[in-house]
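Hi U.,

Before I forget, here's the chain from the pilot set. I'm dumping it here mostly so it's searchable later in email.
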Amino acid sequence: MWKPLARSFDAILSMTLARFVRPRGELPRPHAVPDGPDDVNWPELVELELTPLESPPAKGGQGEGEPQWDFSFPSPVPSSWKENETVRGLALGPQDARRAIILLHGAYEDHYTHAVWMARSFTKHGYRVLIPAGPCHLQRKPPGVFSGSPMFWSPELVVAGFHQWLAEIRGLMGFLRREGAQQIGLYGYSLGSLVAGLAATLWRDLDFIALLSPVGSHADAIEHSRVAARIWPWMRDIPQEKIALLDRWAAVHRQPLTDRMAFFITRYDNLQPTRLQEQWWEAWGRPPRRDYPHAHLSVHYCKQFYRDLAMFAGEGVRDKE
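Structure:
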């Protein structure tokens, strides 16, 4: 994609979002803000309630009309918002699959369309895919606010969101193992990549991760990206101890426990500058990567990315056979 056009997507994103996602009123105090990921006793299992969908929410592309389910379960972590205490999401693919992936969306997602597009790169290879809505996102958002915005109203709420999403992911991994999955991976885009990266530093039974537009540190993105600083201006001048808290929850500052990784780098990215993506890739030992002439948003429309993601999924199938 033409570089100025690709970057204009990110510029429009920042100008549009900045008006809708600012903190409102008195900020709630999170129920739990762990000092670091290693201080948490992670849950081992959650119980899902699955409801078949008659009309899939994402239209177009391969796999339209394939079976999909809504799922829900009580979050293992309490929240300041009632709506956020129930996890909701989408499930695709065969329920008895031996391979499964949990797919994590980006910040402020307000629909599942892009996540379903990415999920189909895995379902075509027989994977079961779970797409859990992140804290305060999608059906979990409190009334009257933009999807995801409360999660970013303070450094403490950011960390509380990371903690909650990771606890839910760990519980989903236990559910999938009990259902017969022998191989479980995580895919993360943007915000989801940071959470997937943290999971890869915590749990040795995570078989693989794939990261698109990888965000290794929320604090670093705000410091080095004018687009990110425009979206989160209240996070630019926070005290040093709060920066240190965010750093302890930054995947780039930790080391992975899984061997199979893939980085999908966006070369024209203004929201998560490419050099920050490459710093994380370097810090984790230069695992396999693919680069795309796209920005943070335009990569959703890159056909080569979906081909590469499907190839990565297929390699995992061959590795297990």
